[in-house]
Structures are given as structure tokens and as C-alpha cells.
Design goal:
By secondary structure, this protein is α+β, with helices and mostly antiparallel strands. It has eleven helices and nine strands. The strands form three sheets. It has a five-stranded antiparallel β-sheet with strand order 2-1-9-8-7, with helices on both faces. A two-stranded antiparallel ribbon has the order 3-4. A two-stranded antiparallel ribbon has the order 5-6. The N terminus is likely disordered.
């Protein structure tokens, strides 16, 4: 992978060569030789990165991709179908954001609250804006919030799941099938590390969602007047300065999961680890981001 700094320098260098040739400083043959030198620098920079092996990490399925191009930098078992837990809330959030009208009010229904933790324990009849619910969905990963947004968007959780599958297929995440908006265990629900990377790239390209997943904490105002600080569940976001967000997940079936994104010197990468454990998920995700970013 070529150095971004070298990529920025090269066009300017060529312009300087042309100017020097016009001024008679050196002949066209020397310009050709210099151009070949630049090409060789690009080649050896790419070879150097390719020769650096990815770090050894735990996890049943792993992938690292270039967030801009989608190029796969490293993967292991990335096409294996498995539970992905709350990381699939990235797709839930993408659909909500793309639907728009985020200042519209959502009235919590009893069905929204009848879900297993993690949740905010919202009460039926309470009212919140879609925007506030979307933010706390991605920062705190609340399952009742996911259900409320899904029902509000599509009329029911089942209808929203149909939207999830349609949107996933449209973006090329064709090896997934979603049953609910929160990632809680459900028979017939699965995805892959590769599909989650595709979904994550679409989220990363959405300015609003990219801002939300980078939020380290926020104050959530409950309808009953309480205010509670919500700390982002993504620990890498708080410990690695180059990490700029994404989504955690955990269930017994899925293990510890993390979709993480990072940026450095105009390079953007996304890593996905599925089926890891609590002791390794954070440090392994940070290692993958560092490797992908060339740090």
C-alpha cells in the first residue's frame, strides 16, 4: 500500500521536473529517469507494507478493509456465517438515517420494551426524537431503542427486518439474513465478517452516522426529566487516538465482536472481529487498525 504522503508529493514533483526541463536545467531523458525512480519508490513502499504480516489476533472471523475502496487487506474465515450480535445495529442505524426526518417524535410502545438487556428501560408512552434514539443506539447499544426505531420506521420489527435484508442485498452483503434490529439471538439470523465490513463501509460513508459512532459520550435526557451520561461501549475509541468509531457486540452465541474504524494520514480502514473474547477483543482490534493504517 503506497504511502499517502508519497502520493501527495508525486504530482508536485512531476510539475517541478517539467518546469526544470523547460528552463533547460536537465534533458527529457533525465525526467524519464526521475519518473522511473518515483514509480520504483511506490512499488517498494507497497511491497514493504505487503511484507509486514498482519498481527496474530483471536476471533473466529476477521477482516480488515480499506474504508474508501473496499479493498481487502487481510481476512480469515470472513465468509463464514455466524451470529454478529449488536454489530448489526450498524445496519439498523443506516436505514434510520437514510429514511430521514430525524426530528420526528417516536412514542414508545409496550412491545418496544419487551426485550432483553442491554436496554435503557424506556417506558411506554414516553416520547423521544428519532435523532436522540439513533445517537443512543450507536453509543450505548440499547436493545429497546433498536426495537422502537424499527417499529417506528416500518410498522413492526418483522417488517423492519425485511428492510434490513433488502438493504444488505442492495449493498452487496448477500451472505446475511437478519431477523431483528438489535442482534439478540434468533434462529435463522446470521451474517459474516465480510458482510459486516460492507455494511460498516456504508455507515462510514454517511456523515451523520460517522459523527455519531465517533462520539465518546453523550448526555441522554429521559422523558421523565432524568439525565444520564452514556459512555460509548467501544473502548478502542477511548484509548487509540486514530480510532474514530463503529460498533461493539456481545452475546453468548456470537462471542465478543467489534467493528472498528480508524484514520491516519488520509488513510481509512475498517476492521471486523467476530467470536473473540473479553480479554482480547479491544487490544486485537487496535492491533488490526494499527496494521491497516501502517502505524
Amino acid at each position: 500500500m503506497a504511502s499517502p504522503r508519497l502520493a501527495e508529493i508525486t504530482p508536485n514533483f512531476h510539475r517541478q521536473l517539467i518546469r526544470m526541463e523547460k528552463e533547460g536545467i536537465f534533458c527529457p531523458l533525465m525526467r524519464v529517469r526521475c519518473s522511473l525512480l518515483i514509480a520504483m519508490l511506490f512499488f517498494f513502499t507497497a511491497i514493504s507494507h505487503a511484507a509486514t504480516p498482519p498481527p496474530k489476533v483471536r476471533g473466529e472471523a476477521v477482516i480488515v478493509v480499506d474504508a474508501k475502496s473496499g479493498r481487502v487487506l487481510f481476512h480469515r474465515n470472513s465468509r463464514a456465517p455466524r451470529a454478529v450480535a449488536s454489530t448489526q445495529k450498524l445496519l439498523t442505524a443506516l436505514i434510520i438515517a437514510e429514511t430521514g426526518n430525524l426530528d420526528a417524535i417516536v412514542t414508545i410502545q409496550p412491545s418496544d420494551t419487551a426485550v432483553a438487556p442491554t436496554k435503557l428501560y424506556l417506558k411506554a408512552g414516553q416520547k423521544y426524537s428519532r435523532r436522540d434514539l439513533l445517537q443512543v443506539l450507536l453509543v450505548k447499544s440499547a436493545n429497546d431503542v433498536a426495537c422502537a426505531l424499527a417499529r417506528d420506521n416500518a410498522g413492526s420489527v418483522a417488517a423492519f427486518a425485511d428492510k434490513m435484508n433488502t438493504r444488505a442485498q442492495a449493498m452487496g452483503a448477500t451472505a446475511s439474513h437478519f431477523i431483528n434490529p438489535n442482534g439478540l439471538p434468533a434462529e435463522g439470523q446470521f451474517s459474516t465478517a465480510r458482510d459486516m465490513a460492507i455494511i460498516a463501509r456504508n455507515v462510514y460513508a454517511n456523515p451523520l452516522l460517522r459523527e455519531i459512532v465517533a462520539t465518546k459520550s453523550l448526555d441522554f435526557h429521559f422523558a421523565d426529566g432524568r439525565t444520564r451520561e452514556m459512555i460509548n461501549t467501544n473502548r478502542v475509541l477511548r484509548t487509540a487516538p486514530f480510532c474514530n468509531g463503529m460498533k461493539t457486540g456481545y452475546t453468548d452465541a456470537a462471542g465478543h465482536c467489534l467493528v472498528a474504524s480508524g484514520q491516519h494520514d488520509e488513510r481509512d480502514v475498517i476492521s471486523v472481529i467476530l467470536g473473540s473474547n473479553k480479554a482480547n477483543i479491544w487490544k486485537d482490534s487496535q492491533k488490526l487498525l494499527e496494521w491497516g493504517l501502517g502505524l
